[in-house]
Predict the 3D structure of the following.
Amino acid sequence: MAEAVAQAVLASVDHKSTQHRRDQAFQYLEKIKNNLNETVGISLKLTSHPHPAVKHYAFRSFMVLIRTQWKRLSIAQQEDLKRYALRMFQMSTSISEPFLREKISDVVTEIAFKDWPQRWTRMFPLLCEAAGVNSGKRNATLVLMLLRIVRNLAGKIIDFDPSVPEKRCREIQEGIRKVLLLIQRVLVLSFSLPTEELAKTKESRNRAIKLGLEAIKSLVDWVDPAFIYGDLNDTKQGILPKVFQAFITSEHCVIAADILVVICQKTTNDKYNQILRQLWGPLLDTNKKLFNTKMQDPTRWVKLMLSVLSPLGKMTRYHLNLVSAKGEHNMPKIRQALLQYLLAMLNNRSISLAKAAAELWIFILRYKWEEAVDSSWREALLTQITEACIRQNRRRSWTRSLEASEYETEAEHRAGFSALRSQVRVMFELATKLAPLLSLKKHVQSYMKSLKDVSRIKQGETTEIITEANFILDAHVSGLESVIRSIPKKDKKNNNVIGMLGMLLQELLKVKNLPSASEFYRLQTIGCLHPLYKCNQQALGAALKALLQGVQHRPDSQKNVMASALDKDTQITRKRSLTSLIAIAKHERTELLPLFEKLSSEVEKMISQEGRLKDEEKMTLIESLIPITNAMPESKQIAFIKKIVDKPLKSFDDISSHFKDTKTFGISAGLATAKAMVSSKSRQFRQEIWWCLDLVRVIFRHALKRLPSVIKILTKERIRALLMLLRCCNQLLLPQFLSSSSPSLRAALVDTRAALEEELKKLPYSAPKLVVREIHVWFRTIRACGYSLLGTAAKGLPVLFFGVAGNDNIGGTAFEGLQSMPPIYLKVVLDQLLPNYLTCYPLENQAQRQSFARTLQPILQGMFTRLSRGWSHHQESKNFRTNELVEIRAISSLTDSTKSFVGSLCELFCVPLGISGMTFIRNTFYAATPTTGSNNPHDAKKHGERKLKNNKINPYVPTRKEIDRSNYVVHFILSDQRLSQALFTVLVGMMAWPTNDSVVNACTLIVRLIPELSKPKNKHILVRNAPMLTKAFRMALRMMSCLKKELEEIQHNAYTTVLKEIYSTFVPKGMNNLRQILGSLPGVEKPQISFLEKSLMQEKANKSHRRAFKQFLFRYVVANNQVMSCIKP
């Protein structure tokens, strides 16, 4: 039979065999595999077969047999296999094929996983004796095989291999500790095996060193540091010198760097300081050597540099004190070399390297500046750091050429640069706090030089030149804003600081011939020189004059063109000018009071100019005046507000009768036909609505906090008019209305500007495209302003607002058409009105509760239906997580709408956003345990303690009223089958979304539902929602299997918490299908589940429960690709 099996194996690997012959061979081999006794005998005979493929089959059969059938073998058979494995190990030198020797090592490893060290105690001594580890006659080939066994054993433990039970891992770890001295000798030998001897068996010394390093990497994280450092009296012996030798050779530097990172991070014992101190020089030399090496593949060079830099980074973070100025061993050369190298890295064109260097510089500037940098170096070093940051703050174009870019896609490039720019801004702030004048001087000088260079660019230059100039100015503006913001308060009135800013302002006012595409950077800079304006009234007046000119900016070639047809550069210039005006008005309110009359008259004159400015630009000009009035006496402020708002309010009151139905509103607004859109009467009607709503919104935004009485602008009649107006707007968006409307109106009502441009291309040439654009902006603005005002009324005038809203059936007015509303329009409702509406609705009596329930049902049903329709088709697998898709989805309107809705639900449920919300829920809504805090409402003795030590109200502890509202709403949603199913659909979809905040908030809301579902009186609700809970449980397991072990900690915690809460709460209540789901995971058996449940029962603390569950998940779920196939969605 052995010969027949050999023939079948040979037929299966012979490319000359027919497909039919191969199929027969495979079927025969599968049949033989099922017979345990025959498999053992046949495999023993086939190991002596001359053909390597047959031997490979024999060894592989042994592996499968040991892995799957070990317990079925008798003890005698097991002992025979152990002896046979040792004999094959000893005879491996006679085998010429390296892959067969690897299989023999794997067979020994598989037996070790089953029986070592308890029932095979002498395995390591026998293997070491066969390899000659303790004698002068070592066998290089057997040492190499022994390395593989050590690597495999330690590797599976550290990787939490699900095929090895946790108890066996602990036993193997203990066995490794007992033979650690032998393992240490083997590892040391791996670096000195003779090349000639290895070559005889087709092995190489590089292979031996790599195996040794992989074994050390698996061991170093959990063994005693003495294993690495060896004898302190003879530091040249031991493992560390060997690892370091491998590190300084580029061939093995990546693995060696990983080992050194763990060593540097883990070593806290002072007795090893002398050795660590000696590492500084070689680490720096290796980094410099590779840094100065030129490679053809820049991507590979960057990866090598990051690997080599990682141990140096850990040394800088954890052991900089060993070479610091205040240390016992002052080593200025080492420190100076380190700082100069990090400076060179910061100056490098590679974004990844610059980010790594910036991270270390932030650490040094924030924590180690005084300690690591001598006083004589500081000024020069800060100057160099500032210059490097200014260069790195400059945007860079992306190219697909690998020689020019380290990123494969433009999205990756943008994400990398965005992260670098964030770090650079932090460095600007830290450097400014250390030396304000020096940092500001360097920025101002550099900016002024760049302004002169850009001003020399002639009009009509190529786009590439203009773009590069804009990148330079953008870097200077963003850097200067960070520096000015970071100047300490005591230094903002320093004469040198004021003089430097004044010099910059003079240069900005002097420059007149910048390219039109670069003009807005000049105006943006003028708006951020706040310390100067507080001390110099003349400079403030000059800045205001320049910004007002910027608001009316128009290129010479377009002087006779309408405001709505201005080019993009001019629109941006005006927008930046207006933004700068508002910024100055907010920061310098008192300083602007003497100039207020002049400024307001200038604004009034600009607003009165027909066709010069757009309506939104005129409103922004008004908005720049209102913050200044906060510095006036209240009576004067009220008089000014009354002056500007009376006429628009009267006009709004006069036209509010046109909101009684959508048809009347459409005719009055000129929406029926293209001809009506351009009529002066309809344009006047639209402008009056816009001006009134937007003006009141602006007043509330800037003056409501100081003048709460200004909210009385919203009378009962005006609130009713707003509700009717928003009902008309929402009905315009209904599919049945859009299908019968004109093409021009359909184009104007689309939700995005990109969609608008696409629709405009479809319109005929004679269509009023400018007016369509105008109506698009108008419609979006009045909806946003209307919902903002209603939200303010719901919060500030709840009695009046809900009296009107209840009478007018708000579910059918302001919230009409939610089920079909485009996501961007839906987001306005979610952001502006829904949170205040849900959280401020009075629930004082049963009648109000019933009214709230009647109103809440259609709102939530519409929201859930709209969002769950988008989420139900969402692909849950995270294999698609490329940066382009993440970016596209991160900015998608559906995602933004869902985030806003979840934020509304969190407010309604009285839950904070983020990972802290889960702890808050445990402390607030769960039954008291020995570890829950005083926030727990079930703790009668401690409930209600909302005061801090200084007798102030603690806003993070909810009141009883807030808790009752939360419990009522949760119960209401879960009691309605359609609502609860739609809610779970949205939340389960969000759990699969590849962003941290979506995952965390979805898991937080699911955890919030659990206390209500677990109440005994709600058993019928639990039965109805059990399938959705199970679906959430499955989804969390599937998504957790896609995560990496060492990254995505926030998502780990979110998924772990929701899995633990569902399992520990509902398995005792009879949901045994959850236990079956865990049992179906690869490698999980009943003893593991029993051990987990026993841990959950014995421990009382929530942290202990989460720790036990996390250990289970990390062993069997995280980074396990098999979970997706085992756990169906």
